[in-house]
Amino acid sequence: MASIAESQNGIRPIGKHYYTMWQTLFEVDTKYIPIKPIGKGAYGVVCSSINMETHEKVAIKKINNVFGTRIDALRTLRELKLLRHIKHPNVIALKDVMMPMQRNSFKDLYLVYELMDTDLHHIIKSSQPLSGDHCKYFIFQLLCGLKYLHSANVLHRDLKPGNLLVNANCELKICDFGLARTGNDNGQFMTEYVVTRWYRAPELLLGCDNYGTSIDVWSVGCIFAEILGRKPIFPGTECLSQLKLIISVLGSQPEADLAFIDNPKAKRFIASLPFTRGTHLASLYPQADLLAIDLLRRMLVFDPSKRITVSEALSHPYLSDLYDPRCNPPAQIALDLDIDENMAEPMIRQMILQEVQNYHPETAYTNTWS
After folding, report:
1. From the CB of residue 289, how many other CB atoms can be counted at a distance below 10 Å?
2. Residue 293 — very low, low, confident or very high, per pLDDT cuts 50/70/90?
3. Which of 228-256 are b and which e, b meaning 16 or more Cβ less than 10 Å from the residue's Cβ?
4. Which of 81, 183, 195, 306 could form a disulfide with 200 if both were Cys (CB 3.0 to 4.6 A apart)?
5. pLDDT by residue (tens digit) across 232-242?
6. Helix/strand/coil for 218
7. SS3 of residue 57 by DSSP
């Protein structure tokens, strides 16, 4: 549970109070009453809390040492910029970002999200039974959120069960946009590390320098399979073993379906693998609906140009009883992050503060910078 604490310098700023959870000090706005810690990662600690002004339960994520590395700072900036614009029931809502007291020297940042009960990774690993309807509803919501993101020109690039938050009533929301990009980004956009390996599309594993929304569809396919089988479908230990696992299930690929590989060495590696007819997905998941198997087969296609799109997936017969295009309109605008990856820390800090200020318009015209 959260316990009341003193500030590190003994000074209690107006509008802030202090709590400790899991040996972590939280400096939060007085309208938030922390309840208990609910998660921990490399970024810091997440706790549940109540907004005493609205009586709404929320989740507060403390990001430790935001500017520890340029990559961490840029990931935070990217998430702030994206979630300010993205509003969809299947995407996590960022409700507030607390204004730091030392605006020119702050190290930590507190992001306030809507509160969810768990994530899909924990559900899959648990002993909780998952019916065919559970599986269908999770995949449907994931595709609805992804369709909206893609219509807004956003690639998530790191879809995995741990980045899909779930409530007790089975509502699902996509989170963690630190690796997301918009289609107008250039440079590192095409080449840097993306997607946890087990969910990484073949074109990324093969080092292709051009990719699109189909990388997210592949990740959805891997998540779909993991829900059906309660374990990852391609748990590779490194890049080459990942590719071998994929081929062992999908089967050897005809030469025409390797045309997208622009690296001759990578293409030779795939062509050199022993011939295999692959494994029928229905034999891997014998309890699954045959329509679910058909949709999964269309997602897990080696050649990205032949992979089903999100819109096509939502129109698949497997989801026909859930999907109504009129209830899932596209985004009104296409986003362009336009973030210079080579910015120095002072500029990143300034841009993060500008994002924070959107949640605190009353500070826009004050001269209280410290």
Report:
1. 15
2. very high
3. beeebbbebeeeeebbbbbbebbebbeee
4. 195
5. 999 999 999 99
6. helix
7. strand
